[in-house]
Amino acid sequence: MAFGNLRSVLRIFGGSSTSEKTQDELYRDVLMMTLAEASRADANIHPLEIEMIQQIMQRETGQDLTEADIRVASRSEMYRSVNLLKYLRRARVQLNAENKATILQALVDVIKSDAKINVLEIDFFNRVIKALRMSPAEQQGLKA
Length: 144
Fold this sequence. Notes:
Layout: H1 7-14, H2 20-39, H3 47-61, H4 67-75, H5 77-80, H6 84-91, H7 97-112, H8 119-132, H9 136-139
Helix pairs in contact: 2-3, 2-4, 2-6, 2-7, 3-7, 6-8, 7-8
């Protein structure tokens, strides 16, 4: 798959420290996992959500993902084998504030992309914020 092999997941759960390269991989994997899961949070993967994820991943990581890549990621047992929220709780200490704010904004963009916001998507959004332990200032991208 074009979007990673989750080495960063294994490193996080293995307790190893992160280099800058590893931190970039972690950010990319967290972003992809979160957005893929968001696309199916309401049990309906809308084509506009796919397009938005493609745009975000290109802008943030330089990766050109196909619709198939995203659909596979949203249904993949590879991602299911690691509970996303547990992974986010572990990853949050190794992500910087800017990465977390970008992930959150990208999540908002995906949720809003199909012009229908579902209660399940709102619940998913709230669970992501809780797992990342983001303050209101961090949620708005504010940092000192």
